[in-house]
């Protein structure tokens, strides 16, 4: 199997592309459609349907992987920190499958990005414990040990000093509060990453999300014993990771995960 379709559902846009699974790169242009408002499962499924249709010729009967910024347990979305509350306990995978008339694989957005970084990006081939965090509206996390993803880690919601961590350390908190990069790094990210380091002792921390383009403004200010590096696949990571996870599931079907 050489190609799969990856679709990344975000707060403002839903993006898709065909992914070359050998190279971990797009083999078509990316299509972006604005996220419908309100972004209910049915409304989002319509847009996902349009994207799948657009790529149907290139995809053939190849796999489809979809990301969402929520806990995804056995196809059911279990949280909605920064998305429409109607996703909580929605049979999301089933809703997409009914809309598309075929099987899909639904995964958490940060898990998808993390898998892509470990296969093709900043943590390529890493043999230890890698934690990939994405700093955006929220904080997403992927916990990957010896190449194996432990899904739905949700380390953005660690409670630190009485706060939901992402409410203070996400990129959106920096913007909302007008913090300079150095203040954000030393007063927010330092506390966040030292807590993650203490609790999990990772071998490598990877920082993704749009703000990672400016990593030189904040990562060098952090004092940690763990190596911390910017993500490399940037905004392709979610699409690439989702495509790979969908293909991987076909090779290794998991009766628990696939109902
Ligand atoms: C959500 C996660 C998501 C992250 C990044 C958090 O608020 O709880 O599921 O991965 O944001 O989008």
Task: Detail the topology: elements first, then pairings.
Blueprint: E1 3-9, E2 13-20, E3 25-26, E4 31-34, H1 41-54, H2 56-59, E5 64-68, E6 72-73, E7 76-77, H3 92-100, E8 105-108, H4 109-120, E9 129-135, E10 139-145, E11 148-150, E12 159-160, E13 163-164, H5 165-169, H6 171-177, H7 181-200, E14 204-208, E15 227-230, H8 237-251
Parallel strand pairs: 1-5, 5-8, 9-14, 14-15
Antiparallel strand pairs: 1-2, 2-3, 2-4, 6-7, 9-10, 10-11, 12-13
Helix pairs in contact: 1-3, 4-8
Residues 69-71, 79, 81-82, 108-110, 134, 136, 138, 140, 154, 156, 166 line the site of beta-D-glucopyranose (BGC).
Give a nutshell description of this structure.
This protein is of the alpha/beta class and 259 residues long. The chain has 2 domains: 3-109 and 236-251, ATPase, nucleotide binding domain (Nucleotidyltransferase, domain 5, 2-Layer Sandwich), CATH 3.30.420.40; 122-232, Nucleotidyltransferase, domain 5 (2-Layer Sandwich). It contains 8 helices and 15 strands.
Unreliable stretches (pLDDT < 50, length at least 5) are: none
- Average pLDDT for all residues: 96
Shape: globular
Write down the Rg: 17 Å
> Could you name the CATH topology of the largest domain?
Nucleotidyltransferase, domain 5
State the order of secondary-structure elements, H for helix, E for strand.
EEEEHHEEEHEHEEEEEHHHEEH
What is the name of the CATH class of the largest domain? Alpha Beta
Count all strands and give the number: 15
